[in-house]
Amino acid sequence: MSTRRVRVIGIGPGGVDQVTVEAVAAMRSVDWFLVLDKAASVRDGAPDPLVRAREAVLARHVGPSATVVYVDDPPRERRTGAVGADADYRAAVAAWHDARTERVADAMAARPGDVGFLVWGDPAFYDSTLRVLDRVADLPASRTGSGEAVEVNVLPGISALQLLAARHRIVLHEVGHPLHVTTGRALRSAVDAGQRNIVVMLNRDLDELEQTDLAAWSLWWGGNLGTTTERLVTGRVAEVLPQVRAARDRLRAAAGWVMDVYLLRAPEGER
Ligand SMILES: C[S@@+](CC[C@H](N)C(=O)[O-])C[C@H]1O[C@@H](n2cnc3c(N)ncnc32)[C@H](O)[C@@H]1O
Predict the structure, then answer these.
(1) What is the pLDDT of residues 62-75, one digit of tens each?
(2) Which residue's CA is the closest to the ligand 1 atom numbered 7?
């Protein structure tokens, strides 16, 4: 039985220079790339800037020979509730993963050869590619191409949280202290649970930082890291939050997208 390789390749958080040598070799080894592209109805007809960023990585590291197959990324139902609505949120994410699984399986069935998935940052942090591929593997073999064995390799990438630390020249935790990594929607529960050194990703807004108990915490913030529009802000939350909000607005206007990540650390007396 022949083996079909699936390479899940971390490409770093946006810049063509944040790609490892190993990732480049993997990109050059596959026959085609499967790129999930938000359907035009979801992105108001404008090109998806994160797809354009992947194309830039391929142009730089593979060249014009790269074959890209675009697959419409199914829209995800957005639930705004925080911790109380956790079950709802998980159900929405599971439904989205199911929909993605179907589309990835269809695309793989339609085209033979080794396939590469270009994962933003590192596949280990807040990315569904490996979960979707596990689901694809559970489908009958006939769904993804004439019953051949599928081997999945993961090539790690630089995560946004690593680039945040590098750009601010910091260690993300103090000596002997733990680090908690979470999402904007789960920040409040992390603080309430006693976490004092928190990296926060997936921020729809920064409203959680308005809470008065966080005013004296230290913030190291980074937006669109690794790209030409990259911005950094650091200081006490209450003092720099307006600056961070303004930086986010400027990034959205300049780049057409904004992704930000930050480290939040409790004042010394509270740790
Ligand atoms: C879906 S998660 C993917 C994370 C990715 N797998 C990683 O390892 O960085 C997207 C979140 O990562 C963070 N992120 C990704 N790229 C970023 C960048 N260039 N600058 C700042 N934050 C970024 C943001 O918090 C964003 O909401």
Answers:
(1) 999 999 999 988 88
(2) 121
Ligand 1: which residues within 6 Å by Cβ?
Answer: 13-14, 120-122, 125-127, 159-160, 201-203, 222-226, 259-261
C-alpha R_g of the chain? 20
Task: List the structure tokens of 177.
Answer: 């202290």
Q: What is the pLDDT of residues 34-55, one digit of tens each?
A: 999 876 656 666 778 889 999 9
Residue to mutate, 117, 202, 228, 257, ligand 1, most ligand atoms under 8 Å from C-beta: 202
146 C-alpha vs ligand 1 centroid, how far in Å? 36
Question: What are the structural domains, with CATH classification, of the chain?
Answer: 3-155 (3.40.1010.10), 160-270 (3.30.950.10)
Q: Is 231 left (phi over 0), alpha (psi -120 to 50) or beta?
A: beta
